[in-house]
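Lab notebook page, bench 4
Experiment: in silico fold of construct C2
Operator: M.H.
Input chain length: 226 residues
Purpose: comparison with the prior construct
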Amino acid sequence: MQFKKYISHSLLFISNRISRHALLLIGSLYFCLLFLLRVSLDPPYFGGLLVWNLFLAACPYLISLYIRKIGKGHGVKKMLLLGVWLLFLPNAPYILTDFIHFRYKANPIDWFDLYLLMGFSYLGLQYGLQSISLVYKSIQEEYSPRIAVLIQISVPFLCGYGVYIGRFLRFNSWDIWMKPKQLLIDSLLALKQPLCWLFIIGIAFIIFWFYAQKQCTPIRLDKKNL
């Protein structure tokens, strides 16, 4: 009984002092350190892509934090920021597709690789979910709940489309400036492929699922419940 009370008080202490933002930072540092350990054990290693993709996944999150920080007003500036945010947002769920690089060869270190892939993928997705939540709150407060809900529903499908463009058409977020014509043509042609739509729906479902789990109100730990 005393042990249970100790655990409950510990969870209360942690939950009251560590924000979700801090947890994302701690998780990112932890898995980046594990990545360095993995490279030192058996180089070369494809995992350098994971670190880069995690950085790209964090970009829309950082943009959404800035959007929240500037508050109401700044109409033109905020619209430009939202455009850049939407452009980089598919990088968050994109990291889920890095499992394509995993090759199991009956080597114990392969399980370490799988652990790293799972960790980086989860972090990337969480950066995306937190980012969507922050932008949703900003739009809800400044414009209207209807517009916020519309964005909340459409963004996961746009993310799925963006991931497809990145993974299969091999375009990057900045190609909208570097190769705008080719990007537009290839992206529109991709919509004719049934696989493209299946992929979009699949990624959107994952985002909706985890976002719904995130929005569920957990049992609050307070002294009355201990």
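Observations: The two ends are 11 Å apart (CA to CA). The chain has one domain: 21-215.
Next step: discuss at group meeting.
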